[in-house]
Amino acid sequence: MANVNVPAGKGMRGGKRAKAPMKTLGRLLKYAFSRNKVATVFVVFFVLLASVANVTAASRVSEIISRLLDYKPENHAAFMSNEMHTVYMNIIIMGCIYFVGAASAFTYNIIMMYIAQGTLKKMRNEMFEKMQYLPLKYFDTHTHGDLMSLYTNDVDTMRQLLTQTIPQIISSVITIVAIFVFMVMYSVTLLFVVLLIIVAVFCLTKFIGGRSAKNYVIHQKALGSLNGYVEEMTEGQKVIKVFCHEQKAREGFKKLNDNLNEVGSKANTYAFILGPVNNNLGYIQYVLVAFVGIMIIAFGKEIGLLSIYCSVQKADVANRVAVMAGMMVSFLMYSRQFNMPVMQVSQQFNAIVMALAGAERIFEMVDTKPEDRGGDITLSYGEYEKDKWAWKKPLVGGSYEYIPLMGDIRFKDVVFGYTDEKVILKNISLYAKPGHKIAFVGSTGAGKTTITNLINRFYDIQSGEITYDGIDIKSIRKDDLRRSLGIVLQDTHLFTGTVMDNIRYGRLNATDEECIEAAKLANAYFFIKHLPDGFNTVIKGDGANLSQGQRQLLAIARAMVSKCPVLILDEATSSIDTRTEKLIEQGMDKLMEGRTVFIIAHRLSTVRNSNAIMVLEHGEIIERGDHEQLISQKGKYYQLYTGAFELD
Amino acid sequence: MIKTLLKSVREYKNSSILCPIVMVGEAVMEIIIPFFMTFIVRELENLAKGETQSVNGGNIALYSSIMILCAFLALFFGAWGGRLAAKASCGFAHNLREDMYNNLQTYSFANIDNFSTASLITRITTDVSNVQNAYQMCIRMLVRAPVLFISAIIMTSIIEPLMALIFGGAAILLGTVVSICMVKVYPHFRTMFRKYDDLNSVVQEDLTAIRVVKSYVREDREISKMKRASGEVYKYSVKAERILTVMMPCVTLTMFIVNIFILTLGSNMTVGNISGNVSPSKLQTLIHYSAQIMSGVMMVAMCLNFISLSKGSADRICEVLNEKTTLPKPEDPVFEVKDGTVDFDGVSFAYMQKADENVLKNISVHISSGETVGIIGATGSGKTSLVSLIPRLYDVSDGSVKVGGIDVRNYNMDTLRNSVAMVLQKNVLFSGSVAENLRWGDENATEEDLRLVARQACAEEFIDALPGGFDYDLGQGGVNVSGGQKQRLCIARAMLKKPKIIIFDDSTSAVDTKTDASIRSALKKYAPDTTKIIIAQRIASVQDADKIIVLDEGVISGIGTHKELLKNNEIYRDVYESQIKSSGEKEVG
């Protein structure tokens, strides 16, 4: 039931099956049960008890019916004193067995529920924790939709597997075995009849179920393309309106929707037919068992243990019939009971396949190698000198060497590509002296953002060296390296929480006053004050209710609070109009004061007062110098500046 | 709510009605089978009692055949019912989606703003699936299950009324227990689903902002957020499932107790201690019925549970279906736009009626046909809002907007919007080829037409450089072209409409100044009679305009030519100066 709110996936993963199902199953079981060894033992025990109780209770019915069949009004008194006593005894025993069965079922269900929910919780947390430390490459190569569905669809199939499928399978197997034993004891011929129907059930389930599964894959695909259409068209709904394209949109939707209806109806038909078919095959079996049973009792010879039992007892004809009839009634009950677990197991098969495919995807993510943690040089504040940042390098013998953090960053012959095949940056060398403002200019794909991604080690370089205050950045602990860099990204992301929380994200121990001060410097104070609850306004859904410009102002405020010694501004003011940009210039100047700053900007007015401007093209620095130098060179920068070339 | 939803059943009404009837057929067959079983077992009974010397083979064969026939009929009915249920529920879902989508197409911008895009998508997909499942359960089970246990009780009363009483009592008891459980579990489930949503949004947020998280080294904070969210999910899942876990054994236990009762009572009836019409053969049928009755009660409970869980989804669907467009249609619409004059007459505007502050305040301005008008102003000054009123994307709160001398509210919507082309700030291209995208402007456009507008929008050159040229596939949302290229395609698309008025809402921000200028001169040359309204950040984009409007916090701070405004408008001068350094040097350099 919990999948009610889970968004339907894109459908592309629908048809996938686990590659190594047994291994995955083993690992999953170990994951779920190794933490709860005692509880697991209890579960198995109670499942066993419950199934056995179920089976043996039915055998009491045969005893009772046999006795009652023996009743003849003429010897009422004798029956009351002897046989009736046994009947009562059997009823009482049956009651006790029933009670034990129900109590065991309750116990294992509740234990299993706690195990399952606990496992899911642990799994979600571990997945998330693992995910935090995965390299960015992983996020580049996996869509958000796919990752999201690990937490929704895949974990949910796990829930079903643990709470329903596994206990049901254990109990089914035990029940089947127990009933099988009883059946062998009663009558081999009847067992043969039952098995015949079971084979039919299995074949039909495989056939219909297979059809259903195949059609579900098609259905999932159709659903995926409908979802894709709705997503794309709804994103562009305003464009549709402006172009009066509603009718066209409807037609496109109708085509996909009609198709979905057709394949969905087919897939569901197979699924809905399966239940009644199996159920009623059970009835056919029920009748056949009764028919064959009576024929055996009335006319035939039985080769099963039953006949031996009867011959040993040397019972008279009437008595033999009574005993056998009682047993047949039990057999009828068993055959119904037998069908149930067989049906359940065959229906659970799909659930297992899905769960294992899901588990495999989850394990795949959990097993991905996390980002390395970097070297052992850490960042310290105020230890070396009051209110000053310094790198803390551990020396042999437990003492530390402090290297003051200046913000001196150098690239030496850096070569980098996101994949090994395609080189993005070719032999880049550059230096940023402490307090310098370095700007990168160039068209999309020239490698501007890539350079900044290398400084904070979002990605690692293939060859060359990047040093930070003379230290190779690989020997600095990654967290500390990143902590020393304040970044404002092109796509601003905000978090659910108040405006204040979002500004404080830059430095968690910042006071309210500091946050407000930062907002003022970033010129965000004015619009924040106009929000319904000012700084306490809750931002939802990545700040959907704020304009892109306002979000950028908040991101700038966030960076201002962070007090990082080095700043990276990646198109930080791209959505802010020039007049507002002018207004926050003072704030920006203050932000950049005494800090090493890397700027990527589209608007050249933003970069003109930089100490050095690098013009990038195809991963190479083709021009460098300050504004005046570059203008007088009359090269690419000059062309860009005069508007002869397009920047995007 | 149910009424709104059921409107979408339409052509699947027959299947929807027939399905429960067929399912009743199956249920009745299922009840008849154990009843006939009594007769067969009775043959044995008589044999055991010595009343007969041998069984009547003919009778047995007859009853067996009847039962087999019943079983086949039940199978047939069940399968047929399944097919009908599939057809009806998928069809219902299909119609629901269609109705929702069709209604969505009538939405105004204000309606669209009411729902977020993400929520609209969930409503059309996931929520419909939930309702479809509930519907399917309803028509398949909700009639069949009660019939199953009622007819079982009737059959029982034919065999022995006292036993029927026991069954009836047990069913009521069980029904009560299950209902109580359902009522108790429902709020927990609701909360649980909300907690699931929270958890999903934590993951979602983390995924989209992973670079920020890593930059600020806030992984721990995210993890603790996740732990809190998953802890909540755990808490409410356990709460809900605990109740359900108690419920199941209650059901089986009730069934067991009923069995014990029946056996005790039945035994005593058989031996004549209690007067009653029960023999061992009937006893086995009764035990069979007890299982059927209990499963009937369970099924009803499950159905109700499913239905109540899908109520949230149904509500969300109804919201989409019931939303009425905020732009009323005129009674006697005008079907022709005379020319491209635009008049704002004392216009005030707010996005929401209850908003205390208007985005635009008392704006009056006249734009003549064929004029080029620039609009300049800071973020949030109301530029986009102002131009959105022209193609009637929103209605004014006060005053009126006239196009071609007629109030926009009196036009047929398509007429108006086909005459007013707007290149939106947040513009979107769709999957499909370049040509397909351009043809949004005019679906009958020839290749020459496409080439012409592409040339006007300075897009021809890069389109030709694309593999396949005009047939190049743009990918979902136009991901395969750069920002500047996208903007130029959007401009070309709008020009293809040959509109009376064309509006550029910051549409050339990613285009270089030279291209920007040549697009403007192409406009002037090829569409001299078209009114051109240009919102821009760059002064350069508007300085040649016939008229420039400077907006500041929703009011017009100045109107005039570039020169006039430089002289007497402080804001304009500010903006100019913030950009002019570069253009100043351009001349020097």
Can you describe this structure?
The complex is a heterodimer of chains A (648) and B (589). Chain A contains 21 helices and 15 strands. With 648 residues, chain A is an alpha/beta fold. Chain B has 589 residues and is of the alpha/beta class. In chain B, the strands form two sheets. A six-stranded mixed sheet of chain B has the order 6-7-8-3-9-10. Chain B is elongated and about 120 Å long. The interface between A and B is large, with 173 and 181 residues.
Write a short abstract of this structure.
Chain A has 648 residues and is α/β, with parallel strands linked by helices. Chain A has helices at 21-33, 37-69, 76-81, 83-132, 136-141, 144-186, 188-235, 237-242, 246-298, 305-313, 317-367, 448-455, 478-483, 499-504, 512-521, 525-530, 548-562, 578-592, 604-607, 627-633, 636-641, and strands spanning 378-381, 389-394, 400-404, 409-416, 425-432, 437-442, 463-468, 471-472, 485-488, 497-498, 538-539, 566-570, 596-600, 612-617, 620-625.
Strand order of the largest sheet of chain B: 6-7-8-3-9-10
Q: Unreliable segments of chain A (pLDDT under 50, ≥5 consecutive)? A: 1-15
How big a fraction of the residues of chain B is strand? 5-15%
Helix content of chain A: 55-70%
Helical stretch tally of chain B: 21
CATH class of the largest domain in chain A: Mainly Alpha
Uncertain residue ranges of chain B: 582-589
CATH C-level label of the largest domain in chain B: Mainly Alpha
**Secondary-structure arrangement, i.e. CATH architecture of the largest domain in chain B:** Up-down Bundle
Q: What's the overall average pLDDT of chain A, rounded?
A: 82
CATH topology of the largest domain in chain A: ABC transporter transmembrane region fold
N-to-C terminal Cα separation of chain A, in Å? 48 Å
Taking all Cα atoms into account, the compactness measure Rg of chain A is 37 Å
